[in-house]
Specification:
Blueprint (H helix, E strand, L loop, with lengths): L3 E5 L17 H6 L2 E6 L10 H7 L2 E3 L1 H7 L2 E6 L14 E5 L6 H9 L3 E4 L15 H20 L7 E2 L4 E2 L3 E5 L3 H12 L3 E5 L3 H9 L3 E2 L11 H22 L5 E4 L14 H5 L6 E4 L19 E5 L3 E5 L8 H20 L11 H6 E4 L2 E2 L2 H14 L3
Length: 391
């Protein structure tokens, strides 16, 4: 039986330095009975050179050869192949798809017979999906990088500093939202010596934040909730109270990391420009939620993606962009583990199989056998068809 072939594509998005497979994991894919083709220069942005892939057993070839021969295609982001490119029926594409941003392209892939798998589509609470959950692995890198960005911009050292003659208090940091990015921000800030508080309403996430060393910031009138659905209801009904409570608290902190991005709903604006302007001179706010898949805005009213803004008395607002691309070795390695975990899951010791009765596959397979399976994207397409008046 002819072995399957995985093609690793070079990323084409501006500023993207990650790669979908690292040389150290080529042997893992090969052990699954899948040969590896790597596009020339695919790993250069993360300093994984073509020679390293070749030494690991991969064939380094031009993009045209990968698109022509590979059964499976892996990228970090959706490949930009031009309007004239058509995939072969039966090819399987693995990437962080963000399908609701490209519904018509998803429809086109389905029409071409492509099976598209989104490693960013694992829902909260699906424990079996954790190994393939690239959204979480990349969010952790973002949380780490956000704290470093804040530390670079603040005009104070994060840990307690001084001598027997004079001792200065540590920097006080607030992390809003204790999802994967927020929890990594908590951990990083604590390790750097900051005095860290976290605001989070979900009980499990609150516990995780305290175990990492944060104190909880509780706000008047807001009670802990059990899960993401209850959090969404709270955001719908008590957003004004949450904003006011955070506004009252902000002047106590030197660094704020805003990282509340509830899945499947618009990102809530939690920190108004007026509230940020009232922070102490030299404070730093990093918005990790700005520019997410579900909303163009972020947690901070005046934040813009990939933009540094000064407000108030030298308060710096950093709108996070593609932070994992700034740490490409770690981010690529984490993503490559997600890719190899998916391949193991699809093969399960036998031939590679798409089984939509499996909860993990049902969550991450966006197109298969000519159909769009991702429900939010399917709804967008239906709405577009209805608006156009197509029967």
């Amino acid at each position: 039986m002819t072995a399957l072939t995985l093609g690793v594509l070079r990323e084409t998005a501006p500023g993207e330095r990650r790669v979908a497979l690292v040389p150290d994991l080529v042997h893992t894919v090969d052990a699954l009975g899948i040969a590896v083709l790597v596009e020339r220069g695919a790993g250069a942005g993360a300093l994984f050179h073509d020679e390293s892939y070749a030494e690991a057993g991969a064939d380094v070839v031009p993009r045209a050869e990968i698109l022509r021969h590979a059964d499976l295609l892996a990228g970090v982001r959706v490949p930009l192949l031009g309007p004239s490119h058509r995939f072969r029926p039966g090819q399987l594409l693995i990437a962080m798809l963000q399908p609701t941003l490209i519904p018509f392209q998803i429809r086109q892939w389905a029409d071409q017979g492509v099976t598209a798998v989104g490693l960013d589509l694992v829902p909260d609470g699906l424990g079996a999906g954790h190994p393939v959950d690239a959204l979480t692995s990349q969010a952790r890198v973002s949380g780490y990088r956000a704290v470093l960005l804040a530390a670079e911009r603040t005009r104070r050292c994060l840990p307690p500093w001084g001598s027997s003659e004079a001792t200065f208090e540590p920097v006080r940091a607030l992390v809003v939202g204790a999802g994967p990015a927020g929890l990594q921000a908590v951990d990083t800030a604590c390790r750097l010596g900051a005095l860290v508080h976290a605001h989070e309403l979900r009980r499990r996430a609150r516990q995780d934040a305290t175990e990492l060393g944060a104190a909880l910031l509780d706000l008047p009138g807001l009670r802990p909730v059990d899960d993401g659905a209850a959090l969404a209801r709270t955001l719908d009904s008590e957003l004004a109270e949450l904003r006011q409570g955070l506004a009252d608290s902000l002047p106590r902190f030197d660094i704020v990391i805003a990282a509340l991005d509830p899945p499947g709903r618009p990102v809530p604006v939690l920190l108004t420009t007026k509230a940020v302007q009232a922070m102490r001179p030299g404070s730093v706010v990093v918005d990790l939620a700005v520019g997410s898949a579900d909303s163009p805005g972020g947690n901070v009213e005046c934040a813009e993606p990939d933009t540094l803004t000064l407000v108030g008395d030298a308060v710096t607002v950093i709108g996070a962009g593609n932070l994992p691309a700034q740490v490409p070795v770690t981010a690529s390695t984490a993503y490559a583990h997600n890719v190899t975990a998916l391949l193991r899951h699809l093969k399960r010791g036998g031939p590679l199989t798409i089984d939509l009765s499996d909860p993990v596959q049902a969550a991450v397979v966006a197109t298969h056998h000519g159909s769009v399976l991702h429900e939010p994207t399917k709804r967008l397409l239906l709405e577009a068809t209805a608006a156009a008046g197509t029967p």
